[in-house]
From TrEMBL:
UniProt subcellular location: Cytoplasm; Nucleus
Keyword match Nucleus: yes
Pfam families per UniProt: Yae1_N
Signal peptide: none
GO cellular component labels: cytoplasm; nucleus
Protein name: (wild Malaysian banana) hypothetical protein
UniProt KW keywords: Cytoplasm, Nucleus
InterPro entries, sorted: Essential_protein_Yae1_N, Yae1-like
Domain Essential protein Yae1 N-terminal: from-to ranges: 2-39
């Protein structure tokens, strides 16, 4: 194996390692986002009688309904951009701790929308005994 072959092999190994790390970091977030999109979409498209059986409180059914539109308006590309921006913000914060400002709080909300929607959905689902089994699967994933 020559010098060039060694350089190529080193680049490939480094790229694979980076991919593996990135995949591991993003898989959980992608899974959670899929859960949010899937559950909100399924719920909205159910007949009202099934919605009432799954979610007893009218207020919670309305909250489920209200989550659907903003979740569906976020495209896959937008979700990826938000996730990337969130990673950048986390890296910045770990390197420098600065005072929070109003504009940074707005940016934080924007990049954390994915987490916000997931947490909001999990609160709703946890209050519904009929959907509880699905939450247990997601909570197990979240704890790792």
């Amino acid at each position: 194996m020559g010098y060039r072959d060694g350089i190529s092999a080193g680049k490939e190994a480094s790229a694979q390692e980076g991919f593996n790390i990135g995949f591991k970091q993003s898989a959980s977030s992608g899974y959670k986002w899929g859960i949010v999109r899937g559950i909100t979409s399924a719920f909205v498209n159910l007949p009202d009688q099934f919605k009432e059986k799954l979610v007893k409180k009218l207020e919670d059914r309305c909250t489920f309904q209200s989550l659907y539109k903003p979740v569906q308006e976020i495209s896959t590309d937008d979700a990826l951009r938000m996730y990337h921006f969130q990673l950048q913000q986390e890296n910045k914060q770990s390197h420098q701790r600065s005072k929070a400002t109003v504009s940074s709080a707005i940016e934080d909300f924007d990049c954390n929308k994915l987490d916000f929607f997931f947490k909001e959905l999990m609160l709703l689902v946890s209050e519904s005994s009929e959907i509880k089994a699905s939450v247990d699967v997601v909570k197990g994933e979240e704890e790792e």
